[in-house]
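Revision sheet: structure tokens.
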Amino acid sequence: MTLPVPARATLASVNRVSASVTAVTLAAANTFRMGLYLFNDSTSEAYVKYGAAASTTSYTIKMSAGSYYEMPAPINTLLISCVWTTATGAMQVTEAS
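Predicted:
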């Protein structure tokens, strides 16, 4: 019996998104997303949301300053938004597709 070979990412997009106290998009919706990796390169907490309009009261994950997040399987293909407690630093975003 031959098992199917799982799909593998062939492209990685790396972006630096400046911190903001109003919601910003970290990654657009992408049906080909196979992985998403975030590093909060900021001295502020970041509130990340699977969907639009992240806020300090509407978020999926809360990232402390200097923390790392790797999206677990199954990979979410929605838009990913974020807001910080202060506009200091940035988020390093790597998206594999």
